[in-house]
Amino acid sequence: MPLSPGPPVDDPGSRPVDPDSRSGDTEPTGANVFGETVGEPAGERTSMSMGIDLGAVVERTAAPVDAPRERLDVRELGPPKPLANTLERLAALDDETVLVQLNDRAPQHLYPKLDDRGYEYATVEADGVTVTAIWTA
Q1: H or E stretch covering 113
Q2: Which of 16, 36, 49, 118 has its CA 20 to 30 A from that of 87?
Q3: For residues 54 and 71, is the Cβ–Cβ distance under 8 A?
Q4: Contacts of 73 (CB under 8 A, 6+ apart)
Q5: In sequence order, what DSSP letters do the residues of 40-102 get, joined into one string?
Q6: pTM
Q7: What's the rounded Cα separation, in Å, for the pair 93 and 37?
Q8: CA-CA-CA-CA torsion sign (20, 96, 54, 83)
């Protein structure tokens, strides 16, 4: 049985994007290198994507508030894809960017890997979504 994706999340400062195309007013159409479907115009959110304020949730953590954010939604992925996709995305990001992972549970197996790699992180629950902010220490 597929997992419920949970409530949609909206954060104007955080969009799933292909790390190789970070400019312009729209996101690339199709699937990015992480298999996520993208293509919604940057400033235009549909009612389907309205939900919790991801920026406010991230502010509840110790993550740098003025840093750029990149969102990674792994709520519908089965193991080990959330772990693998998160580590791959972190390797592709610059040190100033905060990765915000959306999950349906706390990523317990991810935490030791983040510790080993020297990342800081914090996980908070918001409206049924587990949000983990990950940044370079």
Answers
A1: helix 110-117
A2: 49
A3: yes
A4: 5, 9, 16, 36, 101, 102
A5: -BTT---GGG--EEHHHHHHTSSS-TTS-EEEEE-TTPPTTHHHHHHHHHHHHS-TTPEEEEE
A6: 0.66
A7: 19
A8: positive
Q: What is the pLDDT of residues 118-131, one digit of tens each?
A: 999 999 999 999 99
Query: Where do the domains of the chain lie?
Result: 9-136
Q: Which residue has the tokens 């370079």?
A: 136
The length of the chain, given as a count of residues? 137
Residue pLDDT, tens place only, 36-90: 544 433 332 322 343 788 899 999 999 999 999 999 999 999 999 999 999 999 9
CATH architecture type of domain 9-136: 2-Layer Sandwich (3.30)
